[in-house]
Amino acid sequence: MAIVLQRKRKLRPSNDLNDDECKFAKRELKWVKYSAENLSVDFCVFYDKSKADYIYAKLEEECDWNTGKAAQVMIFGRWHNIPRKQVHVYKDGEDYIGEHKDDEKDLVKTSPIASLSLGQTRDFVLKHADSRGKYAKRKMEKIKIELTHGSLLMMNYPTNIYWYHSIPIRKKATGIRINLTFRDFVTK
Ligand SMILES: O=C(O)CCC(=O)C(=O)O
């Protein structure tokens, strides 16, 4: 699972958008809101199928996929495994991420965490900390969101403080899924 991608070419600066890109950036998105106790998640189809297909193909064509040491980065003196933190490739439904909260020391806790999905649809499951495991303090409904090809999920503050998230095993999911996660880190 979990392989880093590195672009072979440089990205253009974000203020260098052509007319089509400006139109795309300004278009209306149909957001769906998920709310529960201390949970706020926004979800939308960000790229239609043809755009999502195009980006998926570009990622496959233009990126080198690394593993091991080559897939790590040093942040504030600590080695981070980029695959776990930023880019995930799930080769099929056997690849998964267990229940966790994002706990990077330098994460700006109040910033949303944005997660873009490409390829195989997978479930994203949110569970309140109080409702986990054998010694759960109380019963709370878990929340399941289908992360479809081209979709964008925004996990807003304070969701990540109170809720665990995971991508569970789905044996029937046979395709590859690429996930790009965007987080805001404190810079010194
Ligand atoms: O693949 C995903 O959508 C979730 C990734 C994730 O849980 C994480 O980066 O902490």
From TrEMBL:
Q: Which GO terms describe its biological process?
A: DNA alkylation repair
Which GO molecular function annotation, any one, does this entry have?
Answer: cytosine C-5 DNA demethylase activity
Residues bound to substrate: 103
Superkingdom classification of source: Eukaryota
Which Pfam families has this protein been placed in? 2OG-FeII_Oxy_2
Q: Name the coenzymes or cofactors required.
A: Fe(2+)
What is this protein identified as? Fe2OG dioxygenase domain-containing protein
**Phylogenetic placement of the source organism:** Eukaryota, Metazoa, Spiralia, Lophotrochozoa, Annelida
